[in-house]
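Structure catalogue
Derive tokens from sequence
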Amino acid sequence: MRPSEVQAWATSRAAVLPPSTTRLVLALLRAVYNAAVLDRLVASSPVVRVSIRRQERERVVPLTIEQVRALADAIPPRNRAMVIAQAGLGLRMGELLALRVQDVDFLKRSVRIDWQLEEGTRRRVEPKTPRSRRTVPLPSVVAEALAAHIQHHPPLEDGTLFYAMNAGPWRADYYGNRLLAAAVRNCGLPAGTTSHDLRHHYASVLLAAGEFVVAVAERLGHENATLVLTTYGHLMRDSEERTRQAVDSAWCAPGAPLAHSESR
């Protein structure tokens, strides 16, 4: 196989596959040929200088506070606290559905994320990554919503906070595709709005308030801050004035060198 043939194949794949998938398949092919070179099955690898179209990530447009409030008001009262909790804690859908009353510490104002609800079986299982296990601050607005929810819908015997009328855990597809989707339509939110947009809202609120990127990544349960930067970088608070103040403060500090004009 020649490099030109690999390039033609990669181009054909890129026409039908997402760029990320194309890169993954190309990396696998490159690894196979590298192993073949080490075993002296081929003299050299043809997977060199392969170019594929650049992946353009769509910019996230987060929901506003008013939109989240409208969604919480449009959904059935039994599910209102679920919307507020997801928007105020930045939880994934599975983490929201697995939340138990013993995971919420009202005194220390924190919530421990230790489980997620497995789609299909609706069993509590460990999160996908170690970083997904985390403790997040409990804002007052979420604490009040959870307290009201518990008063009207006491937790199940195992501590489950959110459950259907048959006292069983919510099915993710039913909650997301039926209840939440209907509420989205009823309150006039953009078509395609899902529960994940509540997680985007959470990240945008933290970044707008000046929270550190690393802290936002930890709150979301990401492995590192790179995903936060690539997904939400355009939402970070403008820092032009802080840049000016930082330079001016440094130059005006006692003992700092003073700018001077060079005489000719």
Summary: The first helix runs from residue 3 to 14. The radius of gyration is 25 Å. The mean pLDDT is 88. Strands lie at 104-105, 110-113, 116-117, 124-125, 134-137.
